[in-house]
Amino acid sequence: MMMDHRQSHLESVRAALSIVVYPIQLAVELPGSVTGWFRESLATRRELQEENVSLQTQLLMLKAQRQKLEALEVENIRLRELLDSSFQVGEKILVAELMSVNLDPYKHQIVINKGELDRIYPGQPLLDADGVMGQVVHVGPYTSTAVLITDTSHAIPVQVNRNGLRTIALGSGTINRLELPYLPNNSDILIGDLLITSGLGGRFPPGYPVAMVTAIQQDPGQAFARIVATPKAKLDRSREVLLVWPGDIDAALAASANAGKQPAEADIQVVPEGEPDSDGDSE
Amino acid sequence: MITGRNHGSGVIIATFLAALVLTVVPLPDWLRPVRPDWVGLVLIYWCLALPDRVGVVTGWFTGLLVDLLTGTLLGQHAMALAVIAWLTLRLHQRIRLFPVWQQALIILVLLVLHQLLALWVDRFIGRPGPPWYYWTPSLLGMLLWPLIYSALRTLRRSFSVN
Description:
By secondary structure, chain A is of the alpha+beta class. Chain A is built from four helices and twelve strands; from the N terminus they run αααββββββββββββα.
């Protein structure tokens, strides 16, 4: 146990043993996937048409946004090139699905259906359509376990999008709450500020939304303000997640060289907004 | 290896597998914290019924599988289940004679011990303390014990596992 906690020698043992439990996970997954299959194959024509229309509208909107983004991205890379600064824009993305397996209720961990065979590596960032979800901690051949940003053992380097103020967001153990304990009372932060990844620490790629500041409490007797933020990602509701390989500058420059073409590896997936926005907070 | 001795190993393995599946089967959020300790209950039953076949080693290996499935520290549940298997083996001749409600009280103690050992490891690596309802699975396990006991006994007799 101490070895598992302190060192990583047992990581390979855990990876090998995870094959043993893979059938159990599949068995648990089975009823969910069967009902999903039934729902898909028994969906009425009207439902499908409606879904199709809404998806097409969404696609159109995203495409319009993307046109602008591409131009901006290329311009950004060109300008950065002029400034000789290295900035990473192009990133490789893979879509994975959550397995419907409940883990320890007091830890915020999830199992995804991609593993070593898909070149997942420990420490890999995990996103959903709205923001950063967490990072991969254990990789097995077919599945991996990821820890969410709200787990009490997790911390993520962030910056305020408005002014670039850097800090660290700690998980609180509650699914809709992050804490920012290291900002002094006089720091320039407001309720509603968007926190994005700062890219410091080298684990998360910079520029992805993490959380929104929801409460600030300044106690003159304390050295630091008490700041609470709500994660942007739907941590307890998303089923599709995106795995990101932070890209290298060469790929991005190559993409900018044949301007007009989009970076070949960016593979964007539209996630339907099906879930009602009820409060899923029961922990 | 004598064939008569190993009669019904399949049934034992199947019950453990079912318990493992129930440990990770998705439940609604409000039910998740009260999920009973299925593996612990099944392990205690087999330790009582067949103390010469199911014991500390079985407990340790199933605990290891629980650790892998639930993503806890490798060895955390393995240790806890091995300890309760050992205690059950020590006490099995006494527990067998008790009426079922009295057995349930002993089961409560064993299940709380399992949770206590897991909690102890969690606190040791610096995780925060759980809320009060952390202990409800043990209570639920105690209430479920008469059911599980009779169900597994029927299963054991109909497949004549001995």
